[in-house]
Amino acid sequence: MTDVLLIEELRKSFGRARALDGLSMSVAAGEAHGFLGPNGAGKTTTLRVVLGLLRADSGTVRLLGGDPWADAVTLHRRLAYVPGDVTLWPNLTGGEIIDLLGRLRGGLDPGRRAELIDAFELDPAKKGRAYSKGNRQKVALVAALASDVDLLVFDEPTSGLDPLMEAVFQEQVARARGRGATVLLSSHILAEVETLCDRVTIIRAGRAVESGTLAELRHLSRTSVSADLAAPPGGLPDLPGVHDLHLDGTRLRCQVDPGGLDDLLATLARLGVRGLTSRPPTLEELFLRHYEGARR
Amino acid sequence: MTGPMTGPMTGPLTGTGALIRLILRRDRLLLPVWVTVAALVPYGVASGAASLHTTPEALRRYADEAMGNPAQVAMRGVVYAPTLGGVTAWGAGMSGALIAALAGLLVVIRHTRAEEETGRRELLGSTVTGRHAGLTAALTVVLGANLVAAVLLAAGMIGLGLPVAGSFVLGLSTAGVGVSMGAVAAVAAQLTVGSGAARGLSFAALGALFLLRAVGDARGSWPSWASPFGWARLSQAYTGDRWWVLALFAAFSGVLTAVAYRVAARRDLAAGLLPDRPGPRTAAPALRGPLALAWRTHRGPLLAWTAGCAAVGALLGGAVSGAREQISGLFPGPDALFTFSLLVLSQAVAGYAVSAALRPRAEERDGLAELLLAAAPGRTRWAFAHLAFAVAGPALMLAAAGTALGLSYGAATGDIGGALPALLGTALLWLPAVWVMAALATALLGLLPRAAAAVAWALLGAFLLVELAFEFGQVGETVLGLSPFSHIPKPLLGAPLDLGQPAALLAIAVALAAAGMAGIRRRDITA
Predict the structure, then answer these.
(1) Angle at B380 between CA B377 and CA B383, to 5 degrees
(2) B62 Cα to chain A: minimum distance (Å)
(3) In the beta sheet, which residues pair with residue B312?
(4) What is the per-residue pLDDT across A113-168, written as a single tens digit (0 to 9) for each?
């Protein structure tokens, strides 16, 4: 499998503020790649470098076999981008903007255009200035998804959509992948990344802190355990590998490192267990773990 | 915590104070610059007039000369008395009024409709601010800044030894124009959905009101009484001090402000008075590239400006043939008027050119560039598409003005065949100067994006003021030479038609535009 996008040691500063500080990541052909990080981590800056809007200070970026800065125009015929905060030309209708963007990318599929407008329940006869944030996003999404491109880049694509439309978006992205498109999705909506993506890169303060499939990242992480005990325990022994322990009467919740599970289960068994659930951590929990250091 | 009913009194004006502080904070540079320029221009004119014309006879000669030139009368009005005060009020009155009018108009739109358009008004509206707080705050700031400028202006004049009463009449009537145009903008801001359209509407009103005064003064008749610009002269600072004319400004602003409040109370947030009609569901086949897109962006202002230029040309041509009979003894011929009018027109058209050339920067700031440039067109093509309008637009406008001028004047004198080519040619002669301004804006766009708009407009303003300063002896030939408009030959006034200087300007324009394009190719696209 070849890489659609390969970034190595990318650095970019704005004045004295360092936005990207040696970021490395790769997106393989055909995969859906989640690009996760808190606000201000450098996600949008990365995407703008990838799109040739910003010039990297140092490092290499290979996009679809080309240089995103030097070959911007040829590369852009093969990708579609939906910015996080979509602005539209105030005096053009949504339909006109969809067609214009499609034509600039080398044409769009009229059948799929109609289908997408229908699915997203978009009124294409409205002027750009009259759309709400969510509808502006839909205009850009329809324009992107109706184009025949190799790579779809989304920056927080559903931040203005309601849950129903989020589901439509996920369905349409799945279809695009069925056509063979690669997807790069930047988000801090973790459920979305979990549903859509095969692999994720987590970025913090301009560096990739972790990258891999969801399974690989879980392997590095803890398990969430909650148990209903037979009786309130007088006190709990300090167990190695157990974190964030909360006890409320007979209900116990905690997080356990993989190595601490045996000890925890043995201890619980001694206390008497009425109910027990354990589950892999949600991406949310993974996420918090990576950023709790940065927040403090 | 208090409940909703037990809190402090709230009404439609709640939060106005906080919003005024916000405006003062955001415009902490703009407002002092405006107030200073508004006070300095009359000061320069007065001290220049005093040093250039030291005797009463010299003043009288100068005043007679000015009154004999209908172009001067149209631009600046009537010299009511050949005294130092009379000449000063005449020389500074309209420049001061135009500065105050532009500033008042722009500040009001910037803090009302533009705020609504970007959604910031919504953010503020969700806090404890009343429905009318935003509009009230903007108008209060405009009123306050104008009053400060009026006092400074008066203080400068008094410092030069001019009478106290006249100085305050001059200052307050200049301020009156600023407040009146702020009120015009307040109404315009309620009518349209886009801030660009509101600005365009206000500029059109400004142009129409100024033209009313120009026609009224040139013919010595009533239209001057129908315009705030007319009142600024009719208050007759230093030569009659008609204080009661100031009441006209108050009435005009009061009525328009009331209209603005009425409309604001009836419409929804972010809506205009005229609802948006649905448009086409698909794009026409021609809408397929940056140039077609730029046409959609520029066509409204382009057509409005072209029509405006043609109207001004037709009016001037007609007015001159009328004035010719009226003041035949003093009249040096229509050529001085045409030359002067075309200079002023080309400077106005340069305003269009700068705004068209800066359009890519606005698209960049709004995020439109991000959406567009991620989809195929190279950034050079995108910037060129807008530059094309900054170059071709002024050509169209000056051609329209020259043609209308030639036709109407030629029709009145029975010599269309002679007047049309001469006046059209003279109008187009100003193009290189206009193009230098467009290219300057493009260079700034490429090389200094963040400051581009501020610097480009400041330079255009400075070039206009340099002409005034030169006329009143405050700067020499060398400084005047910095303005591209000073290098255009004036063949109608008998100057030899030397195309060397326009050609040099053209070369400068090409070099500046090329530098700007190179900059755009190399730099980041940033908000």
Answers:
(1) 95
(2) 51
(3) none
(4) 999 999 999 999 998 888 888 999 999 999 999 998 999 999 988 888 888 999 99
Average pLDDT value for residue range B322-347: 67
Residue in B117, B278, B293 nearest the CB of A100: B293
Q: Given its phi and psi angles, is residue B435 left (phi above 0), alpha (psi -120 to 50 degrees) or beta?
A: alpha
Give the sign of the dihedral formed by CA B105, CA B108, CA B111, CA B116: negative
- In degrees rounded to 5, what are phi and psi of residue B387? -60, -35
Tokens matching residue B144: 């306050």
**Which positions ≥6 away from A294 have C-beta within 8 Å?**
A38, A204, A205
- Taking each continuous run of H as one helix and of E as one strand, the counts in chain B are 22, 0
Mutation pick from B193, B282, B296, B366 vs chain A, by most beta carbons of A within 10 Å, is B282
pLDDT digits 0-9 by tens, B138-184: 999 999 999 999 999 999 999 988 899 999 999 999 999 999 999 99
**Backbone phi, psi, residue A273, to 5°:** -115, 125
Find tokens 């996008």 and name the residue.
A5
- ipTM exceeding the 0.85 mark: no
pLDDT at site B323 = 55
Q: What is the secondary structure of chain A as a DSSP string?
A: --EEEEEEEEEEEETTEEEEEEEEEEEETT-EEEEE--TTSSHHHHHHHHTTSS--SEEEEEETTB-TTTTHHHHHTTEEEE-SS----TTSBHHHHHHHHHHHTT-B-HHHHHHHHHHTT--TTSBGGG--HHHHHHHHHHHHHTB--SEEEEESTTTT--HHHHHHHHHHHHHHHHTT-EEEEEES-HHHHHHH-SEEEEEETTEEEEEEEHHHHHHTS-EEEEEEESS--S-----TTEEEEEEETTEEEEEE-GGGHHHHHHHHHHH-EEEEEEEPPPHHHHHHHHHHHHH-
- Count how many Cα atoms sit within 13 Å of the Cα of residue A243 in the half-sphere of its side chain: 12
Closest chain A residue to B524, measured at CA: A54
Q: Which residues of B touch A89 (CB under 8 A)?
A: 293, 296-297, 368
How far is residue A227's CA from residue B527's CA, in Å, rounded to a whole number? 51
Residues of chain B contacting A140 with CB distance shorter than 8 Å: 371
Looking at the predicted structure, is the pLDDT value of residue B3 above 50?
A: no
| Closest residue on chain A to B286 (Cα) | A100
DSSP B278: P
**Mean pLDDT value of segment B491-516:** 89
Which residues in A lie closer than 8 A to residue B199 (C-beta atoms)?
none
> How far apart (Å, rounded) are the C-alpha atoms in residues B451 and B438?
16
- Closest in A77, A87, A96 to B280, CB measured: A96
Give me the residue from B278, B369, B374 closest to A126, CB to CB: B278
B15: left (phi over 0), alpha (psi -120 to 50) or beta: left
Nearest-angstrom CA–CA distance, A156 and A175: 19
Q: Are B49 and B319 in contact (CB under 8 A)?
A: no
Spatial separation of the C-alpha atoms in residues B109 and B27, rounded to whole Å:
13
Amino acid at A112: R
Per the CB < 8 Å rule, is A83 touching B522? no
Band the pLDDT of A289: cuts 50, 70, 90. Answer: low
| B374 vs A contacts (CB less than 8 Å) | 51, 53, 76, 79-81, 83, 153
Do residues B278 and A126 make contact, with C-beta atoms less than 8 angstroms apart?
A: yes
* Phi/psi of residue A232, nearest 5 degrees: -65, 125
